[in-house]
Known about the structure:
The chain is an alpha/beta fold and 290 residues long. It has helices spanning 10-20, 32-41, 78-82, 102-108, 147-155, 168-189, 195-198, 200-217, 221-234, 241-247, 254-264, 270-286; strands at 2-6, 24-29, 44-46, 55-58, 68-71, 92-94, 112-117, 120-125, 128-133, 137-141, 162-164. The chain folds into 2 domains: 2-166, NAD(P)-binding Rossmann-like Domain (Rossmann fold); 170-284, Orthogonal Bundle (N-(1-d-carboxylethyl)-l-norvaline Dehydrogenase, domain 2), CATH 1.10.1040. The protein has an 8-stranded mixed sheet with strand order 4-2-1-5-6-7-10-11, sandwiched between helices. The chain has a 3-stranded mixed sheet with strand order 3-9-8, with helices on one face. The termini are far apart. The structure holds NADPH dihydro-nicotinamide-adenine-dinucleotide phosphate (NDP) and ketopantoate (KPL). The site of ketopantoate has 12 residues, from helix 6. It catalyses: (R)-pantoate + NADP(+) = 2-dehydropantoate + NADPH + H(+).
Amino acid sequence: xxxxxxxxxxxxxxxxxxxxxxxxxxxxxxxxxxxxxxxxxxxxxxxxxxxxxxxxxxxxxxxxxxxxxxxxxxxxxxxxxxxxxxxxxxxxxxxxxxxxxxxxxxxxxxxxxxxxxxxxxxxxxxxxxxxxxxxxxxxxxxxxxxxxxxxxxxxxxxxxxxxxxxxxxxxxxxxxxxxxxxxxxxxxxxxxxxxxxxxxxxxxxxxxxxxxxxxxxxxxxxxxxxxxxxxxxxxxxxxxxxxxxxxxxxxxxxxxxxxxxxxxxxxxxxxxxxxxxxxxxxxxxxxxxx
Length: 290
Ligand SMILES: NC(=O)C1=CN([C@@H]2O[C@H](COP(=O)(O)OP(=O)(O)OC[C@H]3O[C@@H](n4cnc5c(N)ncnc54)[C@H](OP(=O)(O)O)[C@@H]3O)[C@@H](O)[C@H]2O)C=CC1
Ligand SMILES: CC(C)(CO)C(=O)C(=O)O
């Protein structure tokens, strides 16, 4: 397949590396320096050895024709991508955490697909990513689109599983529960994901946040709480993406994640109200790109 990937941070590099081994991948980046590096060196993914070759372009030069375009920028940069001329008729797959983007991507492009990433990835440089946790990517179409099953089957490999999910809301909301609990708590306390299980006070706060999210999203608390604890255990040595944003002085995705639970409303969510303010307070202290 011919694939376009917008953004070459942790997830963009990871996706381009694996897909580039079997398909033709074009990567769209913001910076000339990164474009030159990718054209020259391809992408290296630790702990693997051989780099993958990709074609690199600047986002503001416009898009080529692709079978699918994959958007891997953070929620805070999504609006910059949505105002570019996304091609009509081409499926655009959005891989952001959270659900704050669902409404706006439907307005901005005519074939929006969404996905959830269960890998851990850390950008080490403009052309190098560390695959810190192996998982899978699930993808779903917001409106019915028969191309998605075939695309998932073509992209899927044992080494980098990509699965089709029937129900986008079910897929995104289940991941949202995980992110609305693990991400802000680890960011607030500056601890790795395992602290959700090992610190009894954090575990109690996690349970409260999980209860609130499940009642708003109408999901089974016992199912999601079990699943969340398994994910915290599987990723116990990871820093969550929100903790990384705080450490690096970047804006977090708190509004698209926990803010979505508050906005959706219908139930009192005092723990979410507290955690959103707490993360904004940390952002304000660390501000560099606010
Ligand atoms: N990393 C992880 O392990 C996981 C991440 N996710 C989710 O995946 C999404 C992406 O996260 P992640 O890869 O970690 O984020 P990063 O910050 O590592 O990467 C985002 C990239 O987008 C680039 N970018 C921003 N605006 C544009 C633009 N207009 N055109 C082209 N490129 C642009 C940035 O470029 P520049 O550097 O030049 O600013 C940066 O390289 C997030 O929603 C995150 O929550 C989900 C699960 C795990
Ligand atoms: C699952 C989890 C919490 C893994 O770190 C994640 O998705 C993130 O950090 O954004």
